[in-house]
Write a structure and sequence with these properties.
This protein is mostly beta strands. It is built from 1 helix and 58 strands.
Amino acid sequence: MQRRSVRGLVASLSVFAATFLASCSNDVGTTGPRIAALSIASGNNQVGPIGGILAQPLVVSIKDQRGDPVEGVIVVWTVSAGDGIVTPGVDTTDADGLARTTFRLGSSLGVQTVSAGLSDLQPVSFSATATAAPANRLTVTAGDGQTGTVGSVLSTDIQVRVTDAFDNVKAGIPVTFAVGSGGGAVSSTSVLSDATGIATVKWTLGPISGTQSLTVGAGSLTPATITATARPGAAAGIVVVQGNNQQGLPGAALPDSVIIRVVDQFGNGISGDSVTWTLSAAGGTVSPSVTFTGPGGRTATKWTLGLSGGPKKLTAKSGAATIDLTGAAFITFASVTAGGRSACGIDDGGVLYCWGFNGDGQLGIGQGPLGAGPVYALPQAAAPVGNQTFGQVNGGSFANCGVTFSHVGYCWGDNNNGQTGTGIFSRSVTEPTPISVGVAFSTISAGRVHSCGLSVGGVPYCWGSNERGQLGGNVTIDTVAHTVLLVPSNAPKLVGSTTDGKFFGTYDFRAISAGGIHTCAVDFQHQALCWGMGRDGQLGDGTNSVDEYIPQFVVGGAVFDSITAGFSHSCAILTDGSAQCWGLNSDGQLGTGTFARQNIPTTVAGGLTFMAISAGLGHTCALATDGTAYCWGNNSKGQLGDGTMTTQSNPVAVAGGLTFKTISAGDYQTCGVTTDDVAYCWGDNEFGSIGDGTLTVRLEPTKVAFQR
């Protein structure tokens, strides 16, 4: 079917209308031809939103001169102003003489008109006012798809435009902004669109790297989603993923790679950053020593331990961020000594390790601070002393001393009384320092505030405090006033010497031991001698009140093999393996089954035979010839190792059934090395002197760390 144009249709309708009206002239009751009139019935002057259909249809009425409706007349509807649409464009009057159409307003604001035409009659015109349409659409106009650093404000503001269905801007519309993934914040969560329909906010990215989102809404409109890519910030920290605190054989590669993660201030991994790996002295090697982080900020290296045992430190650095990782090479201890609040040991290669309290520098690691001092609950390698290796070490209350395989004597720790023998009086000596005289030492014993040693030939030297004559020399004798001035010394002095180079005795000893404020020794005839404070009977000369600055023979005539001086008591092993003790016995430290003080040697109870003995502050320990460890005396900190904290005046076996080859009693703890070269300590651990990495008191032997 061919579609006619409206203009052609109107022409046809004119003919039709004339024909129709003429035909009506023969109607009954008429006085002449019917004349039709076109008028607006309803729908004029409506108001509606642009683009919307008016609520009421447009209706025209056709009536003749008698006011009767005319049916079947075709009416043409035409939009005369605006770009609206009428539906239908042509309508035929019904029985009531009415014709209708609906009007969808055009896209322009203001008055829009529609004409209804019929034949040669004057058309009628409908008016409608188009008002702004409701908000229909949100459009992102700026700020989408940016990239910025986590936690920073994006450089371009976020902008959205609110429009109606015909893209007319909508002002004053509340627009909401809600942060989605990634966290972060906006400068305002609700903004009214301005005169151009734009709503603007600033977006601060959240702390999570990757894609972050922002949801924008306005009432019932379809929300818009804006995204941004947040890149990590600068390196602010390093997190260990794997490989910390490993242990292995000296010189061997650790089993697991060391893996770290470089992160920014919010914990986001940073890729592409370089990491430099450095080791402490004797720490070994890493391969590679420079790496680059991959996805998630991870990177790794392989750590081969140094040849010495003990703790090692590996430092990873990326930018300003660093982290220290620890590892350890297994230590095989040859000997161990218990001091005041610290302990030291020597491995099978002669490397020196110490642990516990370092407030006086007694660990020898070359570090303070002094006074309160840090606590090191794990063995620390002493500061290096060139190529020297230690063959012997002995712990005092506040200072320690040792002898290298080349017979050089070293001391370190508290030096207020000159007990390090370095030729000066100072607050402390923080690393092993050679003794000031060129004596080839075979052994050195550190006491409470003084030290003594024997040359390779057995010549005795002492240094430090001399308040009760414990140096056994370095005295000034006034022959006129018949007085003796006891002079301290910061360098070794021959036992039996005076300050003017004279001697009141020449001594040669096979063993020597510095105690609290006294000293004891055994000469080559197996006789025991003691000197210094004697008020508690610790000199064994049968008196309790006389201090001696000249070595005095211990009474009884026993044949001694070794000797040890505690704080206020002394003990020795006879050549037949029996043990005798004398001095203060308030805690049962003499092992005689009583708490009575003795000023002469008294046999240790139990009928045991011993191969080694060590006297501490208030307790004593010894090794039976089968390697079983026994202790007696004060047990307030578990230093007897029998699993209790009960003081004993008789020897009690150390728990655990271990077989020891060395033993050492300190102030409140005891240490020893078993026959299979494993070091154990027990007792007080307030300052980490057990060496197991804790500060927990140990009532039974506990393995020192870094051993297999």
